[in-house]
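Inputs:
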Amino acid sequence: QTGDIRAALIPRYVRVNTTLWSIDDAVQYFTSNGFILKDSYDSLQTSKQEFSKDEHIPALLLFHPQVSFQDEEAYRNGKVILQDKASCFPAVVLDPPASPDAVVIDATSAPGNKTSHLSTLMCNLGTLFAFERDRKRFSTLQTMLAKAKCKNVEPVNADFLTVDPSDPKYSQVTHILLDPSCSGSGIVNRLDYLVESEQETESLQEDRLNKLAGFQLMMIKHAMKFPSVKRIVYSTCSIYAIEDEHVVRSALKSDEALSANFELAPPNEVLPQWKRRGYPNEMDDPSHAISMVRCLPGEDATNGFFVSCFVRRTSDGDRVN
Ligand code: SAM
């Protein structure tokens, strides 16, 4: 299948920004604009007039791939965000707290789809530090946060690897989302989505993938150094095990993971309803694969994607609360 054919089968995913709009109000708005709510979505049968609610991600609506939202008022005023389904997984798996004293980091934020998703899951409470090292992409992030009316986000134009985990400012950080630069090899969808990855154009030589994997591992190890962190989600839009399972398996063996007691979250905390899991034969312990989630372009009506989650135990083996 070429990317175009696979893209044509990906529904138009529309995430309701629950900071500004309830799901019920959004559904009512679309039905009063001539759309018909169906119980489920079928790529080959759903017509341009029909839409449905996603079965895995709350607040995600599915429309026909050819329905354009660029001129839609609800898109222009930030009430909905055009975001691929798989790209909604990391914030849901991170499951950040929604309380005034919550402190969360999005380490690699621009253009900000996952940041605004985290912000709504936090009910706009507490503080969400959103790091982005690239100046131009940081400016896109700021525009997106303003449009989505994210009030609990503190955007920071800095390299996450230069952030000092012992800085008192970050002493209360409990949750970190890591969605770092990757090969973008899973991306097949339309160009009118705000492109999250800096997609590679040069050929993906092994050397290049190894460099990316080294950087991705460094990011996870750095996140594990934050003193109060207890949950870290690592995701990529890569289909290569070298950037996915292999990075996770190295992270689990790292000094940082061993000294801070990090392990993979149990499968029931990582989208248990989603059938496609990690590749067992790419892990040292094949039973770890079930704790990870994969999406295959052309098979799952999404882009290619990978999600894993590290959680911390106390030295007695209990989960850190
Ligand atoms: N999470 C974003 C979203 O859903 O909209 C997409 C993130 S994109 C895959 C990776 C981003 O991380 C890029 O914008 C890149 O510039 C940024 N980045 C890469 N390394 C970084 C670092 N060390 N510190 C901060 N940002 C970084």
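The chain has a mean pLDDT of 92. Flag for discussion at group meeting.
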